[in-house]
Amino acid sequence: MKARVKWIEGTAMLAESGSGHAVVMDGPPELGGRNIGVRPMELLLMGLGGCTQFDVLLILRKARQPVSDCEVELTAERAATDPKVFTRIHVHFIVTGHGLDPRRVERAITLSAEKYCSASIMLGAMAAISHDFEIREAAAPLASIETRG
């Protein structure tokens, strides 16, 4: 895996992944930034969310759970002094589907956190990471109405 980060100006940077995708990062105005992109630490937190969501959806798909939507909300606390590492991270899953089995959802989250999500395991070496979830029942599809003419 490779990545490249190119300085643009001020505190703005263009990060490019080895797979050819790019994202702009920037610092806050009080540090010379123009606020045109995410902060690098925000990107790290978003990466954790994407990594664990990917795992959970894959595990639930293999378990034949009818997931129609999934959101991951992350909140993090950082140390007050340098290096301002994450000290606590909470990961909240909102999983929507028809008749989802809460035990399977919980198991998928645990497997991601403890075995598959590289970002979670790496960040967990420094920060206390907690998880919870809620299941939302998907709206029933509208019945088709046949009209006769």
UniProtKB/TrEMBL annotation:
InterPro entries: KH_dom-like_a/b, OsmC/Ohr_fam, OsmC/Ohrsf. Signal peptide: none annotated. Pfam families: OsmC. PANTHER family: PROTEIN YHFA. This is Peroxiredoxin. It comes from Thiocapsa imhoffii.
